[in-house]
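BUG: 3D viewer hangs when loading the predicted structure for this chain

Environment: internal workstation, default settings.
Expected: structure renders.
Actual: progress bar stalls at 90%.

Input used:
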Amino acid sequence: MTVLRSSVDTASDDHRSNREALLEKLAAVEAEHRKAVGGGGPKYVDRHRQRGKMLIRERIEMLIDEDSPFLELSALAGWGSEFPVGASAVTGIGVVEGVECLIGGSDPTIKGGATNPWSLRKVLRANEIARQNRLPMINITESGGADLPTQKEIFIPGGAMFRDLTRLSAAGIPVISLVFGNSTAGGAYVPGMSDYVVMIKERSKVFLAGPPLVKMATGEESDDESLGGAEMHARVSGLADHFAVDEPDAIRLGRRIVSRLNWRKQGPAPAAEAPPPIHDPDELLGIVPSDLKVPFDPREVIARVVDGSDFDEFKPLYGSSLVTGWARIHGYPIGILANARGVLFSEESQKAAQFIQLANQVDVPLLFLQNTTGYMVGEEYERAGMIKHGAMMVNAVSNSKVPHITVVMGASYGAGNYGMCGRAYEPRFLFTWPNAKSAVMGPAQLAGVVSIVGRQAAESRGQVYDEEADAVMRQMIEDQIEAESLAMFLSGRMLDDGIIDPRDTRTVLGMALSAIHSGPVEGADGFGVFRM
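Structure tokens produced before the viewer hung:
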């Protein structure tokens, strides 16, 4: 039998305390997300509504199929920066007329939807996801262009937004722009470089320069409508392909465009009858210890995520600090690599490299469940070839061509982040649980290393080491690294695609796998040289 059994005691004190700690972190994440949903605040939201306009998330809700989910991406982008949480934009994956689409748009209640450095990063990440997974893109367009005080950070790299739209089109991935308001300056190129454009009567305004700038540049007198209104673009310039009478009509036309795309997934849809896990996903809240130094069995997570809790483990007696095996999630076959005791040894590295090769041989996507402190150090392990074995695993991850999905369940430290397909290794999607932490090493270890180096330097100069200053320095470093390793900090810098509730892991993975199967799933033809 390959159905996983569970030894979780939900009545234990440890389970209860772990659950409470995680619920507290989830509440903090939700509080920050509410700030993003709140847009520019009551004053600007009310003013937007008084103009007869829907909010960005209301537009998305009307656009996607009734009762279908919307997987929001990078929801906390910009957290901890001088810019609003959410980066004044919304991006995500939703189903429109049965077609999975990448949907994005600026929030016009925040500085008129102007693009800031974090919204640029968010849009570019969304474009990347659309390209990698072959998802038609729908832009809900209403933006005043660049946030001018930050132009030095967005003007030059911002050109990639428009480059991406043309490359999507060239790859046969449709790009649709539904223009709900002003789309000026650089923002005018979004409809200009889209395959399909819908504009709204007396609402949409698309021009490279508004009337004041035209007056300054050429001396010409003009008004918004004659310069860039929807009717002019529909009747004269030809930029508008469809002329809508109001916002609901624009959304209706957008849905009709998608219905006529003749779009086909290149892989299967999620299985309608996929058996749910036999163990309760709600129990995930108490499985991960609040102290990440305490190990936990990732099979308990797998048992609450995969179809029927059915997991066929590969090499279970070898390299036991890494669990590998085969399963299905919403009917999709998946290979899983999950850290069991944090540290990766030579055996785990070799096991991972072989397993990744096997997945590529049969075109099966890989799921990395991270909870790692990195690769083992010490004289014994160096002599046994830890570097070359760790490099073997990193090589396999780097050159694997099947889609990867990463979920950071706990710790993600050192080169373990690399070997377990961290952000730099371009997983198709990377999600984080709210308790997760990631850094080059733990705060205490990093502070200790700096202390040792300082102590040795003082001794080499024949100086007395200042122990009091050392204690202050160590505490400062520990506090800094702790703050910079938290999930909220990492998500704010877009080092993941979002913080998710552990109980939603199966659903999120199912949506990600479905998106992935919009395009081909093919393994690598070969790998780099493995040092044996």
